[in-house]
Amino acid sequence: MIAGVRTTAYTHTESDHIEYGPRTAVGTLLKHGQVRSAAADWSIYPVGTVFQIQGDSSLYIVDDYGSAIVGTKTIDLYKPSHRAMNLWGTRHVTIRVIKWGSFAKSLAILKPRANKAPHVRRMVARIESRPA
Length: 132
Known about the structure:
This protein has a single domain (2-128), classed as Barwin-like endoglucanases (Beta Barrel). Helix content is 20%, strand content 28%. The chain has three helices and six strands; from the N terminus they run E-E-E-E-E-H-E-H-H. The chain has a six-stranded mixed barrel with strand order 1-5-2-4-3-6. A hairpin with a 5-residue loop joins strand 3 and strand 4. Helix 2 packs antiparallel against helix 3. The radius of gyration is 14 Å and the shape is globular.
């Protein structure tokens, strides 16, 4: 269990997500059902990490990232509407990681994008500097 994890929420119609539409950084559709999409700093929570929030039966999978959360230890939860996003706001929660994702897969996705954005370069550098 990891207590005190800061969470925020986002939706696909926010101005900084419009260019990506309802797609995640891994290219899949954003999920909001029993399994839900989450964005995180992949150097902390690598792509594919599955977790549950205490008191919530839903499972969340890290399949997205965003410039505003890199380096913050914040997890951004996908919500299907502005209303749902605003209702969530910012919350500190306890999470249970069901399965850790892959730093190797994170690097495979991030490295080709590194020259396009500073936040991607930061994640790549942090992953590459992790002890083997």
